[in-house]
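Recall the central idea of this unit: under ordinary conditions, the amino acid sequence of a chain determines the structure it adopts. In this exercise we apply that idea directly, starting from the sequence alone.
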Amino acid sequence: MNTHLNTITQELDINTESCRYQFDLDLSHCHITVLSNTAKLMFELESYFCSYPQHKATADIVIYLIESDKPAPSYPWADWAREAGKSGRKDSYVDMHQGRLLHKVRTGMVFFQSNFSRLAIGPCLKNINQVVNFINNQYMNYLQQQDHVICHAAAVSICGKGTAVAAFSGGGKSTLMLKLMDHPHAKFISNDRLFLTNDRDNIIARGVPKLPRINPGTILHNPRLLSILETEEQEKLKRLPQAELWDLEQKYDVMIDEVYGENKIDLEATLDTVLLLNWDRKSSAKPELKKVNPEENQELIGAIMKSPGPFYQNTQGEFLSGPEIPALENYLAVLNKVTVYEVSGGVDFDYLAKTYLELTQNETV
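Accordingly, the structure predicted from this sequence is:
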């Protein structure tokens, strides 16, 4: 055990020596080893990440997950400010020992984040999604420390070329991404977080191993996804007004292998196109695709900009104090090297997916 980890575990009165169960996640250029005190948690994680490589190798990142019923320690917690449009307490934090301790107010989970030690403590089995997010946050930190810019976007690769989809809040980026997955040569890259970096003349897009989490409206309007819901639940949701269904926050995981078949995931791709959804739910017009210059349409770039969040720590060990967003120049540096479309008009996912796929096919002929 390293000295830093020993200091933290003593402070929190926990024992990592009981973490004898291991899970490995091999993300090509970054290897993550997860250790836990419960075999069931490892089984759940292996099942969740079953579509991603799980080979053992020398770890770049080690994470300890400790199933515990201890309450959060009594520290002078500060509330993490929510992003615009969101309310209610969600995260609180205190900085200590070259790291940050985060408390998930609603679930009681506690996480310690630093460049030296990473711990999750609490009812892990009841909060698998938060555990998955914590694991992914380590990879997200790794990428950002390697000069990747964080984007609020979904992405697929089609015939090896990456397409990113971004939208203002509730704009349907996941719904469109899953429509594009119907293409026979499409592969899933990412659902909600995408990381872009310059590689000579190309922009590389890297996703995180996080399955799409979608709302019922996305499921009901995509025949491939209907099996996620029981028939009775489908009928109940179909009776809701369209506006209410659109805004319903009730998440379901999409198991990519089960829905689309095996070998339908890419960890990364060369980015070719970005679709910025700026359409209007109230409009009856058909969606329109217009090629835009990011420099001249900077108001649209807000759709893809994203704060790294409370877990982000740079190479100097510094954390953010709130939901700060990377500089606009960082986004323009990558978006200026790819094709960017603004999507306006009314909302029609089937029409837009068909139009875009026909457009890209014509451009490659």
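The chain has ten helices and 19 strands.
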